[in-house]
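User: Could you go from structure to sequence for me? I need the amino acid at each position, not a summary. Structure tokens:
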């Protein structure tokens, strides 16, 4: 059994006062999460931040009603019972796993939170015997079910179509600047800059294993270099390009991937088979780069293809000629 599981209570074993205490702590947690989302969004998405402020205020109202009920029935001392104390109970993902994934991901998470809360109150209502407790829990289940309407009302009040479109475009721009642009630069560098040393080594030695080692070293080295360079070049505070760690990670990983794409075929023992596969991979990589440029950077596809494929082809040819000489 995993550590800690033996000390958890089963939901069906909770008493009514424990159910209400669990509801109180859950409402506190959800309000805190919504306020965290609001704080995270306030600078770049102020209208959406107001929506989450409103949802946090709604959870505060639920908590106050639950506390009033608890005092009337059980007294002033509320036991500390949290989600993690109940076996099989739904859990909230750590906020740091969600808040950096974009505004749409945060909105989706909020919808999941409301559905989870609705199911909890429905199950708690079925367990309650006291009429007042049963009524309140049932009312809160209905309220959680209607929170999609509340969210829509708050959205309508704070997010008119123009503002929503502006926030969505801002989120897309941030995604492109933080992840796509550094990743694309890394993929281009890794795919193109490693062509010459890998194919030069291949045709100079005729040894697939040695060629693979050269490609591995070139790819990893280029990835580390590009990652640190991107992270150190701009902290994102003024440019708005986002976290330097994220950009460095995107650039470094994609640089390594770009180089390994045509290094891995040299694990094939037969030289000409490995070379044919590597050349095919090169052209797939180059066309993929052209597609990404067209999709996210709005570069006309054929212009991107001409620049990337033609340039990559010249570097490939240079590597083969140098290695053959």
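Assistant: Here is the amino acid at each position, in order:
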């Amino acid at each position: 059994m995993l550590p800690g599981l033996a000390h958890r209570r089963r939901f069906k074993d909770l008493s009514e006062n424990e159910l209400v205490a669990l509801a109180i702590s859950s409402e506190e947690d959800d309000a805190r999460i919504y306020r965290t989302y609001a704080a995270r969004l306030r600078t770049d998405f102020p209208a959406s931040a107001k929506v989450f402020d409103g949802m946090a205020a709604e959870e505060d109202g639920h908590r106050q009603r639950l506390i009033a009920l608890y005092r009337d029935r059980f007294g002033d001392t509320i036991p500390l019972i949290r989600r993690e104390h109940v076996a099989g109970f739904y859990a909230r993902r750590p906020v740091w796993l969600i808040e950096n994934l974009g505004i749409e991901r945060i909105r989706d998470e909020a919808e999941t939170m409301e559905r989870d809360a609705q199911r909890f109150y429905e199950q708690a209502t079925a367990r309650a015997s006291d009429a007042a407790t049963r009524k309140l829990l049932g009312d809160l289940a209905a309220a959680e079910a209607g929170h999609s309407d509340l969210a829509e009302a708050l959205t309508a009040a704070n997010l008119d179509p123009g503002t929503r479109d502006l926030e969505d475009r801002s989120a897309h721009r941030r995604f492109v600047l933080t992840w796509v642009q550094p990743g694309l630069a890394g993929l281009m560098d890794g795919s193109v800059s490693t062509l010459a040393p890998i194919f030069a080594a291949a045709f100079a030695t005729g040894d697939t294993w040695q060629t693979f080692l050269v490609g591995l070293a070139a790819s990893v080295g280029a990835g580390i270099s590009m990652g640190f360079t991107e992270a150190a070049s701009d902290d994102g505070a003024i440019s708005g390009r986002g976290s330097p760690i994220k950009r460095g990670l995107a650039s470094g990983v994609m640089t390594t991937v770009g180089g390994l794409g045509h290094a891995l075929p040299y694990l094939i023992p037969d030289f000409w088979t490995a070379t044919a596969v590597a050349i095919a991979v090169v052209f797939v990589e180059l066309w993929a780069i052209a597609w990404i440029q067209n999709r996210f950077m709005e570069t006309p596809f054929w212009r991107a293809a001409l620049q990337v494929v033609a340039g990559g082809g010249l570097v490939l040819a240079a590597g083969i000629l140098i290695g053959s000489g």
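One structural detail worth keeping in mind: The domain at 5-159 is CATH 1.20.1260.10 (Ferritin).
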